[in-house]
Amino acid sequence: MKISDILSLSNIFSNIKCNSKKAAMELLAKNIANHDNGISQTDVIDCLVARERLGSTGIGNGIAIPHGRLKHCKKTIATFIQLHNSIDYESIDDIPVDLIFALIVPEESTDEHLEILAILARMLSEKKTVDSLRKATSSEEMFSILTN
């Protein structure tokens, strides 16, 4: 599995102005729903919020990976946003979040879900990668960083 299998350039957004975790979730859900006709923005928000209730997906160092499995999702879909300002995300280290990689997978894709989360956790724990994502000024630049 490669990030380029689940993330398209059209689902990467840079320098996004957002003032809350709720607003970020709504934006992420809209981006994901726009790329799969079988799911609604409301379904995606509900899925992401349900996962957040189990514990924050803010993994630390200003990064969050909200994710979930959704019944009517046909294929794994990801979106990435780089925020203009950091937001409170109730992260495990209490550091505000400015990089968010969201993931929705089909309900039955448990192994794929875990595999992708492991790939993302490894990639986003690399200081060089995270620094490059924060310095990036375009979706194209971020896509290149995330998929290489």
Please explain how this structure is put together.
The chain is an alpha/beta fold and 148 residues long. It has a single domain (3-147), classed as 3-Layer(aba) Sandwich (Mannitol-specific EII, Chain A), CATH 3.40.930.10. Helices cover 40% and strands 24% of the residues. The chain is built from five helices and six strands, in the order βααβββββααα. The chain has helices at 21-33, 41-54, 110-123, 127-135, 139-147; strands at 12-16, 58-60, 63-64, 67-70, 77-87, 97-106. Strands 1, 2, 3, 4, 5 and 6 form a six-stranded mixed beta sheet that branches. The longest helix has 14 residues, at 41-54. It starts with 11 loop residues before the first strand and ends with a helix.
Question: What topology does this entry show?
Answer:
Blueprint: E1 12-16, H1 21-33, H2 41-54, E2 58-60, E3 63-64, E4 67-70, E5 77-87, E6 97-106, H3 110-123, H4 127-135, H5 139-147
Parallel strand pairs: 1-5, 3-6, 4-6
Antiparallel strand pairs: 2-3, 5-6
Ranges where pLDDT stays below 50 over 5 or more residues in a row are none
CATH class categorisation:
Alpha Beta
Biggest beta-sheet profile: 6 strands, mixed
What structural category arises from helix and sheet content?
A: alpha/beta
Number of domains: 1
CATH H-level homologous superfamily name = Mannitol-specific EII, Chain A
The CATH topology is Mannitol-specific EII, Chain A
Give the termini distance in whole angstroms. 13 Å
How many H/I helical runs? 5
Strand content: 15-25%
H/E element order: EHHEEEEEHHH
Total strands: the figure is 6
| Helical content (DSSP H or I, runs of 4+) | 25-40%
Instruction: Write down the overall geometry.
Output: globular
Radius of gyration, CA atoms, in whole angstroms: 14 Å
Provide the residue-averaged pLDDT: 91
| CATH architectural name | 3-Layer(aba) Sandwich
